[in-house]
Design goal:
single chain; 15 strands; alpha/beta; seven-stranded parallel beta sheet; 40% helix
């Protein structure tokens, strides 16, 4: 029997990499997209048209749409990756975040039960290191107490516990991967890592003057999303449903990420000052940038409650699943992202120059 996967959040970073991975394994892959996502398919555009890749309209906020899709597809595996996944946005839209990130998980589980697939369909829930929030121990593993510290984390904690409840109450094969920060060239531009790599590329190419960030001392465990989707798959291939931490086991600060991003863009930064007064000053690179402050701290990017020390322990995933979290190093990850954004910015700059030249020619009547 061929394996059929259904992915929510298929248009995102993780969804696109997971689709590629499962297609390479011979799966028939189905993705759920919201009608409002119809113009945001950049990450999966190269997959559309492939015979084993299919898209369906649905929404984690609409239980009937999920029941219809699950009933039609009859998946053997479901990967629930869809979420309102931005911590800062969760402070601005806490009710929406709760509806999607908490109740949305329940709707997926109930859709599987409503379609009579609870004995044949395995379910992966994308959980988050933000559950640990105001951390009570480092590094964090599967037994570390949770202390969510944002509306996003609180909603995700409900998702984690409802999966565990359905596993025990209904004997369903459903489990959570507690994902620590994982990035890639497909990361959304509002997330701090992508914000940094884009700014480094734009500053290096003379299209931006300065980068403003929040707490430069915040510590994170950053991995490559392309490596992490393999662990998601391995979790559902395990003999029994269990929850796993997905992390590298290595920790870095936002300051380090910025340093290496600018370094790969040809700019060396020296950080001076502390807290709100800390600055990143160019000490080597393009002559016109030397001595200039390129990174500053802004209180606009501080959160009402801020998680500052996330550090995962992937020992269980390595031992039980045979997963290797060290395929891509921290510096390699930053370089991949910067190289991609350097090319993206160069292309955008060239396109902008063409538009400006065309506008000038039109104004002068050179072309009609």
């Amino acid at each position: 029997m061929s394996k059929v996967a259904l992915i929510t959040g298929v248009t995102g970073q993780d969804g696109s990499y997971l689709s590629e991975f499962l297609l390479s394994k011979g799966y028939e892959v189905h993705g759920i997209i919201r009608r409002s996502s119809v113009d945001f398919r950049e990450c999966i555009a190269h997959l559309e048209g492939q015979p084993n890749f299919h898209l369906h309209f649905g929404d984690l906020g609409d239980s009937m749409s999920l029941v219809k899709v699950v009933g039609k597809v009859k998946p053997t595996e479901i990967y629930n990756l869809a979420a309102q996944s931005h911590v800062q946005v969760s402070f601005d839209s806490p009710e929406f975040t709760a509806d999607v990130d908490a109740t949305g998980v329940l709707r997926v589980l109930e859709a599987v039960r409503a379609c009579g697939l609870e004995k044949t369909c395995r379910i992966y829930q994308a959980s988050t290191s933000e559950l640990y929030g105001k951390v009570e121990e480092v590094p964090q593993n599967e037994n570390t107490p949770f202390h969510p510290y944002s509306p996003y984390a609180v909603a995700k904690l409900y998702g984690f516990w409802i999966v565990k409840e359905y596993r025990e109450a209904y004997n369903m094969f459903c489990c959570s991967g507690i994902l620590f920060n994982h990035e890639s060239e497909r990361r959304g531009e509002t997330f701090v890592t992508r914000k940094i790599t884009l700014a480094a590329a734009r500053i290096a190419q003379g299209l931006q003057d300065k980068l403003y960030l929040g707490n430069l001392s915040s510590l994170r465990d950053w991995g490559y999303a392309k490596d992490y989707v393999e662990c998601m798959w391995l979790i559902l291939q395990n003999d029994k449903p269990e929850d796993f931490v997905i992390a590298t086991g290595v920790q870095h600060s936002v300051r380090e990420f910025a340093y290496y991003a600018f370094k790969h863009a040809g700019i060396e930064l020296k950080f001076e000052g502390e807290g709100m007064n800390e600055k990143g000053i160019c000490v080597a690179g393009p002559e016109n940038l030397i001595g200039k402050t390129l990174v500053e701290v802004s209180e606009d990017f501080y959160r009402p409650t801020d998680v500052v020390n996330l550090w995962g322990d992937p020992t269980k995933a390595k031992a039980k699943l045979g997963w290797n979290p060290s395929k891509t190093s921290f510096e390699e990850l930053v370089k991949i992202m910067v190289d991609s954004d350097m090319a993206k910015v160069a292309a955008e700059g060239a396109a902008q120059k063409v538009r400006m030249n065309l506008a000038e020619y039109l104004e002068k009547g050179i072309v009609k």
